[in-house]
Write a structure and sequence with these properties.
alpha+beta, globular, Endonuclease, Chain A, 24% strand, 38% helix
Length: 113
């Protein structure tokens, strides 16, 4: 079993916001076995016999030329998120600033209604 990567500042804050709202999470969830793609987080359903379908990605480096803002990185993200949609996932994407401002947790709470 591999050890998950350390949480970024945005991921750590998002996890704390979810804990405060009593939202159950799993992190580094591998949703595609062939490509080994992972989500930063999935929201666990209240009824654990249900299949989870809401994923959250905290995109780092959006203001400083990080991987997600390069042409290659953007195309890779498109492939990943398109595959997730085909598999039935709803993926919410946030920058660290969106987590810090509370937009991320507010959006997740809205999605869970």
């Amino acid at each position: 079993m591999s050890v998950p990567k350390p949480l970024s500042a945005g991921e750590e804050m998002f996890a704390l916001h979810c804990k405060a709202e009593k939202i159950a999470l799993a992190r580094e969830y591998q949703f595609d076995l062939d490509r080994k793609w992972r989500f930063d987080f999935i929201i666990l359903p209240e009824n654990l016999s249900e299949r989870p379908s809401l994923a959250v990605e905290i995109e780092g480096g959006v203001w400083n030329g990080g991987r997600h803002t390069t042409g290659k990185g953007f195309e890779s993200d498109c492939r990943k998120y398109n595959r997730a949609a085909i598999l039935g996932w709803r993926v919410l994407r946030f920058s660290t600033g969106m987590v810090e401002s509370g937009v991320a947790i507010d959006t997740v709470l809205e999605a869970l209604k």
